[in-house]
Each structure stands twice: as C-alpha cells, then as structure tokens.
Design goal:
Elements (H helix, E strand, L loop, with lengths): L2 H12 L5 E2 L21 E2 L2 H20 L18
Antiparallel strand pairs: 1-2
Helix pairs in contact: 1-2
Amino acid sequence: MTLLRAKRYLHNVIRHQEAVPIFHFKGGYGRHAQAKAWGVSQCAWPRKSVYAVLKLLQNAESNAVAKSLKPANLYVSHCHVNQA
C-alpha cells in the first residue's frame, strides 16, 4: 500500500470509517459489519496504536523529503507489531 493510502486508511480508522481486522486472540472483540471488507467477522479501532503508526509514517515521509525523494513513491511493503 502506498504511503498516501496508508495515511488515509489510518485517518479513516480514527474516524471509524474503516476498521482494523482482528485475526488472533479474538476474545473480547465484538463483531462489526466493517470487518467484512477483510473477510473476518471481528475488528477494532485501536486509537492509540493508530497514532503511533501515523507518527512513524510521517517520520518516513519527512525523511524522504530530506533526502530529496518523492513521498508519493514511498510504499509500505510490510508492517509487523509485537507486544511491548
């Protein structure tokens, strides 16, 4: 997903227009219709986590501008989060 689409997706998660699918450890999460887009039945809107990832994406974008690269060409190929 491109950087612009990733930022738009995360902003939509904050506004509850799109949701983050829950695949593992599903206890406690409710079922929502927005999860159908991902092919699962449970999803969430993790506000704190979304802000942390948005900061990382904005940092990557500013680093690209500092190195005279085009931010529109940035591509998020993989994202993995572990419990801290």
